[in-house]
């Protein structure tokens, strides 16, 4: 049995204000539902994510602004910070932890700048939404062994590009092989997984 984290409910005071904030920085609105008694759900998904946020009215009894520590994973935290700063988000400077591993609570033990060796999992920046819910961007460039065993492409264009690159490499492989490769699906899978950093 697999257990997948798919939704985080974020407590907010003004649904429309918060929805505008997240859609402005590229989150996709997947669901907008209003029911009796002021019940409301807005389902928002960050670019490339399989997990989503839900905001609304009557969906949580947590205090608006009380969410802390939801992490959004990025390939390049410096570039991600710049992108959101350009979109008007008040985002912290990039930082790493003095201990070199995961960050402490709040701003304790923060050291300015990304991890000196850009060690995967070790560089961060943080931002808050209009209510003060706090999120962290974490740079992950290489996964721990066994951490992820599947590939998620951000778009159909990315998948098409990966398939085209693999097809060209496979053509060269078949020329060297001297005949067509009847096991080409396994070859494709191994090469695409390796390119995504999952090994083969």
N-to-C series of helices and strands? EHEEEEHEEEEHH
Low-confidence stretches: none
Note the beta-strand portion: 15-25%
Main pleated sheet: 4 strands, mixed
Count of helical regions? 4
Supply Rg. 21 Å
Helix content: 25-40%
What's the β-strand tally?
9
The structural class is: alpha/beta
Give the distance, in angstroms, between the N- and C-terminal Cα atoms: 24 Å
Summarize model confidence as the mean pLDDT: 88
Order of neighbouring strands in the sheet with most strands: 1-4-3-2
Q: Describe the global form.
A: globular
Description:
The protein is 27% helix and 23% strand. It has 200 residues and is α/β, with parallel strands linked by helices. The strands form 3 sheets. Strands 1-4-3-2 form a 4-stranded mixed beta sheet, with helices on one face. A 3-stranded mixed beta sheet has the order 5-9-8, with helices on one face. Strands 6-7 form a two-stranded antiparallel sheet. A hairpin with a 5-residue loop joins strand 8 and strand 9. The model has no long low-confidence stretch (mean pLDDT 88).
Layout of helices and strands:
Layout lengths: L6 E3 L5 H10 L3 E7 L5 E6 L6 E6 L10 E7 L2 H10 L8 E3 L12 E3 L11 E5 L5 E6 L16 H22 L6 H12 L5
Parallel strand pairs: 1-4, 5-9
Antiparallel strand pairs: 2-3, 3-4, 6-7, 8-9
Helix pairs in contact: 3-4
